[in-house]
């Protein structure tokens, strides 16, 4: 399966600032997904990132707040902009891996605290 | 879009007993159903998955069953052990863009 390196693993940020989260995959993947997991909650999809095109955002998430870059088939970034305490959460990237064991793998997550 | 409901939200079992978690989905075109285990502070880990052309799949103590007609699928854990304690999420892949829709999660506690 694919190995995803996600960073930073955690950060504490001041409200009004922005944080960029990076995900690097050890193989080329078509789609990368960005999720948010609030404490004690399930995973909520923020957006789907395809290389070479604009990301597709889910209802309730907008590009101005969560801009995404996907410059190549192994890398993506998610920026959390103009942060407020409500943005405190775990952010995870995920990729779909085709093959014998077909599934979706997650990065280790970024625990964000906004103060 | 796809909607996945998961029950129960918490499940306490004695070590050695079986645990069953059930999920229903709304999109009849959904074709892939993974189950993830998430331990505290860690990323979700895929433990088993099933495709829509299969009714049942087993991997050691874990099995998943799929009923396409009723649009529900279940995770079965036999001979539970304390290390099975975690949050389990079901998910379904609907018909658009390959994205997964997750259930709300089940906190499983296995007591010795």
Sheet/helix structural class of chain A: mainly beta
Count the E strands of chain B: 11
H/E topology pattern of chain A: EEEEEEEEEEE
Low-confidence runs of chain B (pLDDT<50, min 5 residues)?
Answer: none
Distance between the termini of chain A: 37 Å
Overall shape of chain B: globular
Task: Report the helical percentage of chain B.
Answer: under 10%
Q: Oligomeric status of the shown chains?
A: heterodimer
Tally of contiguous helical segments of chain A: 0
Rg of chain B to the nearest angstrom?
13 Å
Major sheet of chain A, described briefly? 7 strands, mixed
Which chains make the largest contact?
A-B, 20 and 19 residues
From the spread of the alpha carbons, the general shape of chain A counts as globular
- The N- and C-terminal alpha carbons of chain B lie at a distance of 41 Å
Summarize the helix and strand pattern of chain B as letters: EEEEEEEEEEE
User: What is the alpha-carbon Rg of chain A in Å?
Assistant: 13 Å
Please give a structural write-up:
The complex is a heterodimer of chains A (115) and B (112). Chain A has strands spanning 4-7, 10-13, 19-25, 31-37, 43-50, 56-57, 68-72, 75-80, 89-97, 103-106, 110-114. With 115 residues, chain A is mostly beta strands. In chain A, strand 9 and strand 10 form a beta hairpin. Chain A is globular, with a radius of gyration of 13 Å. Chain B has strands at residues 4-7, 10-14, 19-25, 32-38, 45-51, 56-59, 62-67, 72-77, 86-93, 100-102, 106-111. Chain B is globular. In chain B, 34% of the residues are buried. The model of chain B has no long low-confidence stretch (mean pLDDT 94). The interface between A and B is medium-sized, with 20 and 19 residues.
Labels describing this entry:
heterodimer, A: 115 residues, mainly beta, 7-stranded mixed beta sheet, 0% helix, B: 112 residues, 6-stranded mixed beta sheet, 5-stranded antiparallel beta sheet, 11 strands, globular
What is the compact description of this entry?
The complex is a heterodimer of chains A (115) and B (112). Chain A is mainly β.
């Amino acid at each position: 399966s694919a190995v995803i390196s996600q960073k930073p693993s955690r950060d504490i940020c001041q409200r009004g600032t922005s944080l960029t989260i990076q995900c690097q995959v050890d193989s080329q993947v078509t789609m990368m997904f960005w999720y948010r997991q609030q404490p004690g909650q399930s995973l909520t999809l923020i957006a789907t990132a395809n290389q070479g095109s604009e990301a597709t955002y889910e209802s309730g998430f907008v590009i101005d707040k969560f801009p995404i870059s996907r410059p190549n088939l192994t890398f993506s970034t998610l920026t959390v902009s103009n942060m407020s305490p409500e943005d405190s959460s775990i952010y995870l990237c995920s990729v779909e891996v085709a093959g014998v064991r077909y599934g979706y793998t997650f990065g280790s997550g970024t625990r964000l605290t906004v103060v | 879009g796809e909607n996945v409901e998961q029950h129960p939200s918490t499940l306490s079992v004695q070590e050695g007993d079986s645990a069953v978690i059930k999920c229903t989905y709304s999109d009849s075109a959904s074709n892939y159903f993974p189950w993830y285990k998430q331990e505290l502070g860690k990323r979700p880990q895929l433990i088993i998955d099933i495709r829509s052309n299969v009714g049942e799949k087993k991997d050691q103590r874990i099995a998943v069953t799929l009923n396409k007609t009723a649009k529900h699928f279940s995770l079965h854990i036999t001979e539970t052990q304390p290390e099975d304690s975690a949050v389990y999420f079901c998910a379904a892949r609907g018909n658009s863009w390959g994205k997964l829709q997750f259930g709300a999660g089940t906190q499983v506690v296995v007591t010795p």
